[in-house]
Amino acid sequence: MKANERGDLRRSARLGGLTLLAACAALAVTGCITNYATPRTIIITLPPSSSAPTVAPSADAPTGTPGGSSAPSATATIVGATPTVSGTTQVTSAPDGRWKATFRTPVVSGGTPAALTAMNAAITTRVSAYISSFNGTELPVVASGDGPSTLKGDFSVAFASPSLLSLRFTVETYVTGAAHPATEAGSINMNVGSGAVIQFPDLFTSPAAALPVLQAQAHAKLAALLGADLVWPASVTMADFGTAWVFTKVGLELTWSQGAIASMAAGTVTISIGWSALSSVIAKPGPAAGFVP
Predict the structure, then answer these.
(1) Of 158, 183, 198, which closes a domain?
(2) How buried is 175 (Cβ within 10 angstroms: 0-12 exposed, 13-18 middle, 19+ buried)?
(3) Pairing of the two strands 99-109 and 149-160
(4) Cα separation of 148 and 158, whole Å?
(5) 3-class SS shares of the chain: helix, strand, coil, % to 5
(6) The domain spanning residue 212 has which CATH number?
(7) Is 45 a domain residue?
(8) Residue 149 CB coordination number (10 Å)
(9) 157, 181, 198 — which closes off a domain?
């Protein structure tokens, strides 16, 4: 074989080997992409108050898992959580020492930021009104042998759900030199979704329809509770029921301040009217619609 022919053969062999190596490399890369590519994942970010949903795979991701189960789908609707209520104590006093106000104020958490801001602002306004009403009067100088005039405020949770928050207030005031303190009842009821304060007439189809039902139900319960000590107004209005009311599971709870409808010795007076007794006048839709059939 001539020398130039042997050179041509060696060049052909080298070219064939390079071609084969290139083909193998291409197949290897293809195999890696096919077997080990990581699928994209869509991560849903929630506000702090919401429950974390499942992670939804993208459309081009595999739906199976090594164990053979399917990945759960994301929840389309985020269900609100029941708010939590804690208390913070604020103390204010007069520069001349005539009065002192101590109030354990509710603080709401666990909702959407806008609604939380609205609810806590409404609570602050209500508490400030109690304190202003007390120290805005001309309180006397401290009586000899006595302490300053005082206000002591507290709260309790009557009802809490993802849609409603109902709080009771108890405000005890004492004027220096008086024989006894007096207790005032109050409340605040709010829509958890919006943070709006719910007004008493909002519960009913109309005040005109609700008033005779409320009057009959309340008078019967109060008469049974207080007997001859009951002081019932000659003319009853919706305002006589709307000062301190709250939602409860069993009924509409109504409270009167000390001395409002009975002697001071009776203290604050509370009754509950079952939701079934009010069903005919509850607004549907409305804040209380969920309590009646």
Answers:
(1) 198
(2) middle
(3) parallel
(4) 32
(5) 35, 25, 40
(6) 3.90.640.20
(7) no
(8) 25
(9) 198
Q: What is residue 282's DSSP assignment?
A: B
Inform me whether the pLDDT recorded for 153 exceeds 70. Answer: yes
**Does the structure show a pLDDT above 50 at 207?**
yes
Q: What tokens appear for 130 in the block?
A: 């109690």
Q: Which amino acid is at 196?
A: A
Is the model's pTM score more than 0.90? no
Q: Which residue has the tokens 């109309």?
A: 206
Co-location of 192 and 137 in the same domain: yes
The tokens of 245 are what?
A: 């009311």
Residue 197 in tokens: 């304060």
Give 138-152 pLDDT, tens digit per residue.
899 999 999 999 999
The tens digit of pLDDT for each residue in 167-195 reads 999 999 999 999 999 999 999 999 999 99
Q: How many residues does the chain have?
A: 293
pLDDT value, residue 123: 98
